[in-house]
Amino acid sequence: MATKRDYYEVLGLTKGASADEIKKAYRKLALKWHPDKWSQASDAEKKNAEANFKEVAEAYDVLSDDNKRARYDQFGHAGMGGAGGFGGGAGGFDGAGFDPFDIFNQFFGGAAGGFSSSGRGGSRTYTFNGGDPYMGFGPDGIFGNFGGRRKTKGADRRTTVKLTLQEIATGVTKKGKIQGEDISFTIPAGVLDGQQLKLSGKGYPSQVQGGQPGDLIITIEEIPDKELLRDHDDLVYNLLIDFPTAALGGPVEIPTLNGRVRINIPAGTQPGKMLRLKGKGMPSSGGYGTGDLLVNILVYVPENLSDKEKKAIENFRDSAHFKTDEDKRECLFSRLKYLFTKHD
To answer: Is the pTM of this model over 0.70?
Structure first.
């Protein structure tokens, strides 16, 4: 399997490129490699142009979006969860693959050729006011009819859906109105914050006779849980216990996605120890298994003691069991490493 090129390299940019530089680079390369401009070339040249056109669109889709770009800058291609950051799913979502013509549509739909835009927020309708509506690509439209397979699509609609961890864990069907139209769609289990899902054919109608409607692009916004932290497919719960429980052990209750459960704290539990509850995390966004619930142990040391309590503790000061040494320090430090390490 070929290794993906760095998105900045694809657009001929450096990592600190501005939004304007990204737009200019995409415009230049998208026009250069658009398949319609290579319709008279050899089969090998056509295949190369189509591959470059897709690669340029994928790079632009990620780097032009602040959330995707931040994930890419931190994790590289591994943080994208698929080409261009689009996720697959159920309930009518089209997860078959990344479509570079959609990006071209969104970029050039109202930016040239005498188009003007109207509407508020992310809802825009593009109307031709004169000039060349095909931008030199011919009568099949600015998005081409490459190989006789495509016609001009309408503009995409966009919406954001806020979901709780519980909804993400099970998947959920949402109903509502988008620009006055009743619509229902299913969010598959395991989606990630910032992930985008595409509902085909639910966008704006095409402005060209015979063209296809655009798509509905749904962006997932994860509502932070008050108790559980998400780390990819795992969940983390910070459990604060008192010193007697840490030293002697005992039962405690912790939250899970399905309600509270009781677990047992082993005697001699140290701060930073992780207890792992297998299969109590989030389902994988790719549909491959379920993460774990990690219980991070924090031990509370009392700040205010009575004279009687102080005297009781003083009696243990010289006990060998209360003494620290290098081996105990190293053991405790190794457990705390999780708190300072970013897990992929």
So the answer is: no
